[in-house]
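Listing S7. Sequence submitted for prediction.
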Amino acid sequence: MAQVAFDKYPDEVRLHYHINGTFQSLPMTRTVGFTYQAEVPAADIMPGFLEYFITVGHDNTVLTFPDGTATRPGAWDFYYRQVYRTRVVGPDFPVVLFNAAEDYDKVLRQWAPARLSPRPDGRGAWEIHLQNPATTCYYDSATENYWYAMRYCFAERVNGRKADLGEKTQLVLRVRNVGTGPLTIRIGLADSQGHTVWHEVVLNKQGNDEYRIPLKDLQTGKLILLPRGYPVFLPLTFAGADGGNFKLPEAENLEWVVVIPAQNKNQPHTWQLEQVWLE
């Protein structure tokens, strides 16, 4: 699917893609407005990366994108500096919900000092530091704990793989406690209606940074409302629409809540969040 913005409808829009060292070409059909789409035959799809170009023809001129050059794939003078690329995986491949190096700036959260920190293995980790939780976290009077909450919408990230979500059995969290003591994180999933399930993980200081949670162990919970409503006596959580149940194929939000007991409200806490996926 492509958005082809033009001052008038082009004469032709085509999809060109690599397969076995040659270009294949398909016409793209306008569906609505300036949206065009084409379907690549299943026989041409294999695990790896699919590289492709889109050509737009109008008034005897053909432009090839993403470069915007006045030629077409396969022509003698065709060259390119950029190419569209999409990853192709099978249904058994893990579904990544969050990758810190790519998604950290899209997280809705309470403010706290944070930075993207490179790991020795080349991966990126998002390091968050709470100097004084009593001044930066929400206080839950029912449990007498302080909560530091974050939420990320992964709907766009899993677009094209939503059908695979229902086949997964484990939620995997790669996170590291780099503070001075144990740290409890509640990780949750919420569907499009706000129905939420969660599980608490205690992060220790023994080097373990990968936590596997069977989906059957997730408990029904409530979605934390971010940003915090005003005035502050309004509800902090939302139970989901119409009293229904969480549906994994409709999941679109990931939530983390750092739970800090009242007796530790003035102690600093630091952790590094790297990745979350389903497998």
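Caption to Listing S7: primary sequence and predicted structure tokens for the chain studied. The first strand starts at residue 2 and ends at 3. Residues 95-278 form a domain with the Jelly Rolls fold (CATH 2.60.120.430).
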